[in-house]
Amino acid sequence: MLAIYILVSSIISLLRTRPTPEIWGYFLVEDGGNFPLTHWENVIGRSKSADIMIPLKTVSKNQVILCRREDERWMIKDLGSKNGTVVNGVPLVPEKRYIVDVGDEIVISGVHCTIAPASLEEAANNRAMRKGDREPVAPWKILLAITAFQAMTIVQLTMALGSDITATVVLSMVALCVIMWVYVSVFKALGRKGFEMEMIAFFMTTINLAVTTSARPGDTFKQLVAMVIGIALMIFMCIYMRDLKRTRKIRPILLGLSVLLLLFNLVFGTMKYGAANWVRIGSMTIQPSEVVKLAFIVIGAGTLEELYEKRNTILYAAFSLFCLGCLALMGDFGTALIFFATYLVVSFLRSGDLSRMILTVVGAAAMGLMVLRFETYIASRFAIWGHVWDDPADKGFQQTRTMAFGAGGGLLGHGAGNGSLKYVAASDTDLVFGFVMEEWGLIIAVLLVLCLVTLTIFAVISIIAGRSTFYTIAACGAATMILVQTMLNIFGAVDLFPLTGVTFPFISTGGTSMMASWAMLSFFKASDMRRNASLALRKEE
Amino acid sequence: MRKQERRALICVLIAVVLLAGIGIFVARFVKDGGKWATFYGNSQIYTDGILNRGTVTDRYDEMLLNCTESGVEYNSDATIRKATVHAVGDPKGNISSGAINAFKSQLIGYDIINGTYDTSAEGKKIQLTIDAKANAVAYNALGGRTGCVGVFNWKTGEILSMVSTPSCDPAGSISNDAETSYYFNNFLQGAMTPGSTFKLVTSAAAIDKVDNISSFSFDCDGNNEFKGTKLKDVSSHGHVDFRSALAQSCNGAFGAITRELGAKTMEEYVEKCGLTESIEINGIDTQAGSFKFPDDDDVKLSWAGIGQADDQVNPCAMMVYMGAIANEGEAVHPTLIKSATFVKEITGGRPLGRYLSKDTANELRSMMKNNVESNYGTSNYSGLDIYAKSGTAEVGDRSDSWFVGFIDNEDNPYAFVVWVKGGGFGSSTAGPVAKAVLNQLISDNE
């Protein structure tokens, strides 16, 4: 009941969000009216999808981009138009940046335009409107509910597992609770208001710790540590991504690191469950591809300006191909599929007229590569797909167990720690959906999926008021990654799709997965444009 | 940016795909959850591949099977074990009609809300409708021969006796081969030549379809040659009318009646009497019977009309037909699981449909009484208000005995079927088996 309350209230709060766009100024077009500038990045041109449309034959489809700078001045760049753009009498050299200020005369293929400031009144109005936005739901009630839920989980686990419960396990759960309160209190004190996403994540982490404790009590603490690192990483990324310039600068470094990580993985990787996607360092094993996922999104996302740069597009396409190639060599079909899907979505979002070709070609090449590489592997997994009940002792072993034990859980579940699926290999990772069904019941299992779907829909809603395509693409990329991963995990376990062996974000046991899931949250936080809601935005007075 | 905003909707599309998948899964969960949960690999409810919870008892709460974490426990009496194994099931699950197989999800207490969760961890108790003691009597009466006995309450549908032989002791060592003959439930899964018991179907058709059947007459010379074939009888019956033809089970007379009825009508009546359909008993499907009535071969048609030729009947279906005759033509759905008996006793069992008109049923009833009075001997069934028909089915060189019918008794309205493979003359072999079981059932019910 508590769980349902927690999840439903968070979900509703996120879904009710209707962000009001901010107005940064007006773009006046001679004989064409005035357009409010609601984004930091705008395309001006003849194309219907341009932010400011000038429907004249002489104007190019995507003629110029106009971007707001941190210092509140505007940057203008001609995208190689046919008839040229002139600012204050100076013709723009294509692909070169110029500064324009309010009142400057901009001539776009002979059309006179200018930028007008948002009046003071409007600015005030603007602020008032944003203040009038639906306030994010206060986190305290939900926090209390989660705490109660955690307490009950500890009691239940202790009852079910008895002597297997060590002090470390209990302390880890308590620590999770404390961290949760500290996190919310600190950021609340700093003036932040939106915590729904974190509430969902904390709740899911609670389930994760319970699953881990039930399956392997020794690893609970490790999960906690992973979560702490994940949260730290998320906070860092949120703050770091506030400044796009900074983010863009670090990208080459991320790219280099990712390449190295994957290569390192290829050389030193150890086989585990049929895929060599693990690296052992001392007693720790990490999954580099989980970390690369984050970089993959940062590298795929781009500001509007970058989307029109051929170099940037080629770089992304090449990096994607490299990632897929490495994953193919590792034999990690599931992750490769996630990367590929994310690549497709990100390129769909990116592809302006210029880059579509390159992206399509690379997409096709990647697909071909994957099919070639996984041919036999796919064949055997596909062969049993849909027929797992015909061979429950061998090829359909995991799926049939997932369904049998999961169904045994009914709608309400047997209670944390009472499950039997844990004795099946990979039950707390690949088959974790069945694990949750058995111990927590179908209702909670489905709600967990709804949580992730909510995050996605929230991201899509909030980018309407987004400042830069960078956040839009990053949020959509992260959403795709999480959704496709969840899909592969669940569908694989219940025989709706061949079993691929990927983790369920937040829920599956595994340090790297937990870390990456939390860090992934930063992309959603960054797209949350509600006033003072997200720590990914600078604070407004 | 507008372009990107619009394109972002693709994420919603992916979310929709995910939700659709979850939707499909939940639908399957609702539909097949019970089947999944009872899968033998589910160690929540199986220990070493054997169900670890649930109890099966007979109608008088006699424990027949008790599944525990430490193993399976059966009734302490070996005869009861052998007599009820086809209703209860063997631990290896080879007997498909056994409760341990067929009522698995009820046994483990599966329901969609709680799944297999069970606070007592003892599972549920299933009370079968059978009377274990009477089953043991039936088992002994069959005396080691292959056969089956079935008795049910033709008002409520409760099956009181279901014995099939050969049988096995589930507590002893049993075969791993699922094809072993003692795993076969003759009563539910069998289909055999009905012999003269089938004349009750032909009679029903004749009552309805032959004009002036009461003035029917036939001169039986014992051989009754027809088109070069002898529809032989045990002895010459001489001059018979319709009633005495059934009482004497005169093949010659019934051959003639069948020819008059024709193939179409015969087909219609085997269907009407429920002999060609499988009956679903708490999820267990019985074997459907099969018949061939050629309309271009009078000889074969005659044989088919007296329960020979290609006629194959399922004993349970025959029993239900007997119940329908007793119940003024209305058939009642048989059941093996005892449930809210109070309601059932008042309203009767779930109807299976009208097999016969009330008049036809009553006419048959009176003819079946006449069979007992004029042929089988009322004194042989003293104390039982019995209505019956015997049969001796010729199968190759072998004669299988049949005795089917019902008793009319306010508290014990039972219809029965007894089949003994190679038992010889029907009324003298199968009749006493029926009598023994019925008497035991009545005394147990006092």
Structure description:
The complex is a heterodimer of chains A (541) and B (446). Chain A is α+β, with helices and mostly antiparallel strands. Chain A folds into two domains: 25-131, Sandwich (Tumour Suppressor Smad4), CATH 2.60.200.20; 228-277 and 286-527, no CATH class. Helix content of chain A is 57%, strand content 11%. Chain A has a six-stranded antiparallel β-sheet with strand order 2-1-11-10-7-8, with no helix packed on it. Chain A has a five-stranded mixed β-sheet with strand order 4-3-5-6-9, with no helix packed on it. Chain A has a three-stranded antiparallel β-sheet with strand order 12-13-14. In chain A, strand 7 (85-87) and strand 8 form a beta hairpin. With 446 residues, chain B is of the alpha+beta class. Chain B has a domain at 189-444: Beta-lactamase. Chain B contains 15 helices and 19 strands. The longest helix of chain B has 29 residues, at 9-37. The termini of chain B are far apart. The chains are: A alpha+beta (541), B alpha+beta (446). Chains A and B meet through strand 3, helix 11, helix 13, helix 15 and helix 16 of A and helix 1 and helix 2 of B.
CATH superfamily of the domain at 189-444 in chain B, by name, is DD-peptidase/beta-lactamase superfamily
The oligomeric status of these chains comes to: heterodimer
CATH topology (fold) name of the domain at 189-444 in chain B = Beta-lactamase
Low-confidence stretches of chain B: 341-345
Strands of chain B, count: 19
Q: Which class of secondary structure composition applies to the elements of chain A?
A: alpha+beta
Mean pLDDT of chain A: 80
Beginning-to-end CA distance, first to last residue of chain B: 87 Å
Low-confidence stretches of chain A: none
Strand content of chain A: 5-15%
Determine the N-to-C terminus distance of chain A. 39 Å
